[in-house]
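Holo model, copper (II) ion. Inputs:
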Amino acid sequence: MISLASLKGTKPGEEAKPQAGPGIVSVADFKFGPETVVVAPGQTITWYNSDGSPHQVTITGAKPQKSPIFQKGQTTKLTLADAGIYDYICSLHPAMKGKIEVKAN
Ligand SMILES: [Cu+2]
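Output:
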């Protein structure tokens, strides 16, 4: 029997790669892309890991948040309710830096 996962070209434990779009950040070659993601308050931000290495998202600053560690082919998600600019790093690789801009319309 052909599993749905193999039809999508994913391996067990992997998710389908989300299409690039609002709130989607790809993690590849130890970089977050785009480096600054712009979302509305309460909009989910989804990171997709294309690297062989696990990664993680830690929002630093006044309102810290930590995502779970996510492996190759997996996503992690965070939601921020308040407008502002949030710097974040990967706690496993602190040289990896990104920014989230939460902007009310
Ligand atoms: Cu990392």
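The chain has a mean pLDDT of 90. The chain has one domain: 18-102.
Archived with the compound record.
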